[in-house]
Amino acid sequence: MVRSGKNGDLHLKQIAYYKRTGEYHPTTLPSERSGIRRAAKKFIFKEKKLFYVGKDRKQNRLVIVSEEEKKKVLRECHENDTGAHHGISRTLTLVESNYYWTSVTNDVKQWVYACQHCQVAKNTVILAPKQHLLKVENPWSIVTVDLMGPFHASNRSHVYTIIMTDLFTKWVVILPLCDVSASEISKAIINIFFLYGPPQKIIMDQREEFIHEINVELCGLFGTKQIVISPTSQTINPTESTPSTIKAFLSKHCADHPNNWDDHLSAISFAFNVTHLEPPKNTPYFQMFNRNPYMPETS
């Protein structure tokens, strides 16, 4: 067992020394040697760095020891454009996806609680009502569309966003819109089709006349027929809606970056797609592609 608490960092240093040299660190007591050997089985030493692989040896998390490195990791996972100002659970998931230290849970909690920016709550502005969604069994077969805004006009004249969410994986795609006309929305949907292909159905909680306009536009642009539908009484399943946390985060982000919020939408989408929204389920990325993303090694 890896020791936690105030001596956890020393314990990790002892394990690193043992993995690197095959000998015990001078601070290791004789009574601690068997524990060091057992704990060391969960680690590997490569490229002069210690990695935690776990009992099943399927993880690959860089061991962090110094306080300076911990702060850097916490800042990157919580405050930058891809992990900025998540709550405790999401920040912890992002940290634990790539890094390991014994007090990580407590450190994440303290970091989030101390974040002054997170103390300011912002209301979410949502154009469409909360979606009532179908139960599905395959990725990218049925998706939903949410419209959000208006936001402050960006430098590129974007005022709204469209959020497309796959019901099976919770994979999200967020694109900016200049307006919420049927033509503008249809063009955004077509761009998503070119990336992932068209789904079987798109659920959009708007008036029937507007949905008909979008279907006409999509038919002219892509040849699809009646792909967009409105929710029905048979499709109600509140547990499968687009996570409200995504909408809340997006609203907050757009308010904080009024001139260039549309530059960060891909990064925001990626951050949520590699995050466990409903532990212990796999991330949307894993469910979509049946693997985790190939992340570049940190220096």
TrEMBL record:
PROSITE patterns: INTEGRASE. Gene3D superfamilies: 1.10.340.70, Ribonuclease H-like superfamily/Ribonuclease H (3.30.420.10). Coiled coil: none annotated. GO terms for molecular function: nucleic acid binding. InterPro entries: Integrase_cat-core, Integrase_H2C2, Retrovirus_Pol_polyprotein, RNaseH-like_sf, RNaseH_sf. It comes from the Eukaryota. Pfam families: Integrase_H2C2, rve. It comes from Mustela putorius furo (European domestic ferret). Residues 135-292 form the Integrase catalytic domain. This is Gypsy retrotransposon integrase-like protein 1. GO terms for biological process: DNA integration.
